[in-house]
Amino acid sequence: MSNEMQHHWDSSHLFGSNAPFVEELYEQYLADPDSVDDHWRGLFDGWQRHQPGERDVAHAPVQQSFVELVKRPRVASGSADPAASEKQLQVLRLISAYRILGSRHAKLDPLQRFDRERIKELELSHHGLSDADLNLTFHGGSLMGHTQAKLSDILGKLRQTYTGSVGLEYMHITDSARKKWVQEWFESRASTPRFGAEQRRRILKQITAAETLEKYLHTKYVGQKRFSLEGGESLIASLDELIQGAGSRGVQEMVIGMAHRGRLNVLVNTLGKAPKDLFSEFEGRPTTELPSGDVKYHMGFSADIPTPGGPIHLSLAFNPSHLEIVNPVVEGSVRARQQRRGDRTGAQVLPVLLHGDSAFIGLGTNQGTFNLSQTRGYGTGGTVHIVINNQVGFTTSDTRDTRSTLYCTDIAKMIEAPVFHVNADDPEAVVLVTQAALEYRAAFGKDVVIDLVCFRRHGHNESDDPYLTQPMMYKKISKHPGTRKLFADKLAAEGVIAADEGDALIAAYRAALDKGEHVEQTSLTGFQRAFAIDFSQYFGTHWAHPTDTTVPAADLKRLTEKLTRMPEGFKLHRTVEKLLNDRKAMVNGELPVDWGMAETLAYASLLESGYGVRLSGEDSGRGTFSHRHAVVHDQNREKWDTGSYVPLRNLSENQKHFLVIDSILNEEAVLAFEYGYACSAPDELVIWEAQFGDFANGAQVVIDQFITSGETKWGRLCGLTMILPHGYDGQGPEHSSARVERYLQLCAEHNIQVIMPSEAGQMFHLLRRQMLRPYRKPLVIMLSKRLLRYKDAMTPIEQLSKGEFHTVIGDQGGLDAKKVKRVVVCSGQVYYDLVNARKERNVKDIAIVRVEQLYPFPTEALRAELAQYSAAKELVWVQEEPRNQGAWHQIRHRLEACMSPRQTLSYAGRDSSASPAVGYMSKHTAQLKAFLDAAMTLGK
Predict the structure, then answer these.
(1) What percent of the chain has pLDDT over 90?
(2) Which long-range contacts (CB under 8 A, 24 or more apart) does 463-472 make?
(3) CB of 276 within 8 A of CB of 517?
(4) Transketolase-like pyrimidine-binding domain spans which residues (predicted)?
(5) Rounded to the nearest 5 degrees, what angle is found at the Cα of 905, between the Cα atoms of 899 and 906?
(6) Which DSSP letter does residue 128 get?
(7) Cα–Cα distance, 180 to 163 (Å, whole number)
(8) Is residue 571 over pLDDT 60?
């Protein structure tokens, strides 16, 4: 800095309370130099000119130096000596360097396997300083409370705050308030715990329980997999602090998601699962019998835990072996609970996610979950993430094989979440950063990450030999005394506990385990919590439960009037204006009801009947095929201002809430979120809509491991609805098939419903049936794109006020049943191709029957329909999909069960194919003509 510049700063009035004003101006200047007046721009230009080869950017170290510089008083000597001023500037740069890079020099590894990397920016010499300057006095900026201090004291506080057991990453945050909060929270405490004796003994008790349980299980159930927490016992102390602290702040529910590592420990020592119940599972005697059940380290649990602020309800989500996939499920469950409570900020329900180090950075579902976290339809007020970082991941021997980033937590920087790295061998530091994480989340409603750097005492599981891939690491681990002993010895040396008290805690815990009991009861019994859901009404019910899904004609007209009324001055697009006018004509019987109208009336009637509706997908507001228009936009205003209107939210004062979301482009995370939401909201119609049916491929793990098997494995009921566009119209492989065969292959034990409706009225009754029946099973709708506007697929308004959902629809051609020689059975839009082919060929002896519900298969209804065709000797299944796909192979045996002994069953459709569909219109048309000819020619 020049003497002139230095003199300006030394002599100006820009100190103390004026500094924030200067900082804000400089921030504006960095973003756009023309945004400040000429005087300030000249000063800032001068500042840039005096930094050869550098150009400052917002939030860079030099900016922080500038901010601190303008806050400082003159150098203590009172001189304007350029050399002294330059050293003062370099001290501020040193402070900034520690804030940015200190985590890379922190003592985070309990194993101390490697020498710490040399970071030149953290050395005095890099900043033109030396040991000779340690006794000189400088202004310490905000680090030292805007007071002067010796360089030795400044350096000592920097090292204690940023390079001890805690490593902080927060300078990537662009929001100044959040960045300063983290900075001040840790610097004011120097990242150093100062807990009283009682709290320190509680921490010891927590990690003693964690270690003792693991060792007990290791000797009692030799060789059985449990995914031990040993090496990361401080997690239990962290969760205890999180629960107690959250309860003190008014949190009433906490939903926890985690994979295998440490899960059994969390179940017993955090949630209060009885050890005897855990032992029964180890011995193959589960306490709850389910059709299939699951392994013990996948199971969920819930409990009510006392805290200083009152009981808090904990729910540990069930989780399959796909590790991080539970994360969006948890977020969805939390969002549903918050919705039920009217908790718009997340103050009452807190999501907590526990991750493995390699899985956190490795599995794409976390990118999707983070991306959801700050969107309107999926936010939960911030999540506390804890990474159980055992530094080895799964089986690889080098972090170069597990990620391309420095830290496994770097993925969290995509949403600018602060990351608190902490050495798990310092359980007090672990508790300290847990307090900070909880307070940060409460203050800002955003995600925060704790990186618990620990180790893994055993292999990936207890039958794995870790020396095969990690010989040097496990030599270190074999010599490590354990976190509990290190902490007990420390407390004993400081006189906090007696010398033998640590061993006494172990003995007491083991004695309780021998009895199958807890050392102390951590959970409440008989506590009646508010907002609990009674699922008992949904168990033991049948899919064919008689249900009236009609809506009186007067109500349909009243709802339509509200659905088509726009705010005054609202300028509609002419296409939407015509659509709304058509809907008015539909309800009056002047036009048949199309799919968009039928669907909208189903939602409206449910909303007024006490059922919320949540609809999400990548273009759900308008509808991918521009048929829905649940959200309309003023053509003269921006939609994020007042330019959007949702008629379904404006039906009546007492209606339930309606939310339609144009979701992020990540099917896996979004579908998992909606599954979690639906599991916790049985009184809401929760729908996920694929833009094209095959897009669900990217969420197959959610379908396989949650939606279709969650009930039989875990007893979890879920009424989630999936709408998957499906139909062969010559649009190529990816825009034709929703892979109906995959869903049918997964069908068993009445686990899901698979429907392929062919009329608009069917959609109306289907959606209403999903909520009005006391039956909560996932519903998969294979929805034709073509039929959305196909006139023959539209229905009279009377079908909504007088009809019902038909699992089977008989022939509509007025044929003489006694003359029918063949019955064609089909599903979906191919029905209309068959009807047209029959008409073109003037065929009078082939009946066409539609199976609308493919599972649970309507055997009795189809058998009754086929029975009237006594002369028919042929039954032909016709489908658009290739022979090896579609429903054919999954329902052939069901069709045979409906036939008479003298009938034969054959197939008409496309030949088997490796691709879902052809990409050439000419081939598509030729294939369609060929199988229609086969279907309409007797004996063929």
Answers:
(1) 70
(2) 463/223, 463/225, 466/392, 469/395, 469/396, 469/397, 470/392, 470/397, 472/113
(3) yes
(4) 593-790
(5) 160
(6) T
(7) 19
(8) yes
- Residue 584 CA to residue 593 CA, distance in Å, equals 10
**Which pair of tokens denotes residue 841?**
């060929």
Query: Please, which residues have CB within 8 angstroms of residue 671's CB and are 6 or more apart in sequence?
Result: 688, 696, 699, 702, 703, 707, 722
What value does the mean pLDDT of the chain take? 89
pTM of the model: 0.89
Rounded CA Rg of the chain = 33
How much is the pLDDT for 887? 97
HSE, side-chain direction, 13 A CA sphere, residue 291 = 11
With a CB cutoff of 8 Å and minimum separation 6, the contacts of 881 are 728, 737, 740, 741, 887, 888, 909, 910, 916
Residue 130 near residue 445 (C-beta atoms within 8 A): no
* Tokens 């304007």, residue located: 80
**Chain-centre distance of CA 112, in angstroms?**
35
Question: CA nearest 560: which of 596, 592, 586, 590?
Answer: 586
145: Cβ–Cβ under 8 A, 6 or more apart, which residues?
A: none
Token pair, residue 543, equals: 């899919």
CA distance 721 to 832: 25
- Given a contact cutoff of 8 angstroms between Cβ atoms, the answer to whether 97 and 122 are in contact is yes
Place of tokens 């953290």: 122
DSSP code for 707: I
What is the structure's pLDDT at 517? Answer: 85
Q: Distance between CA atoms of 150 and 140, rounded to whole angstroms?
A: 9
For 534, other C-beta atoms within 10 Å of its C-beta total 7
DSSP string across 374-407: TSTTT--S--EEEEEE-SS-SS-S-GGGT-SSSS
In sequence order, which residues have a C-beta less than 8 Å from that of residue 869 and are 6 or more positions away?
817, 820, 823, 847
Kindly list the structural domains of the chain, giving each domain's residue range(s) and its CATH number in brackets, ordered by start. Answer: 3-189 (no CATH), 197-514 (3.40.50.970), 553-797 (3.40.50.12470), 813-935 (3.40.50.11610)
Buried b (16+ CB within 10 A) or exposed e, 155-166: bebbbbbbbbbb
Give the DSSP per-residue string, 441-481: HHHH---EEEEEE---SS-SSTT--GGGT-HHHHHHHHH--
Please name which of 82, 186, 118 lies closest in space to residue 433, comparing C-alpha atoms: 186
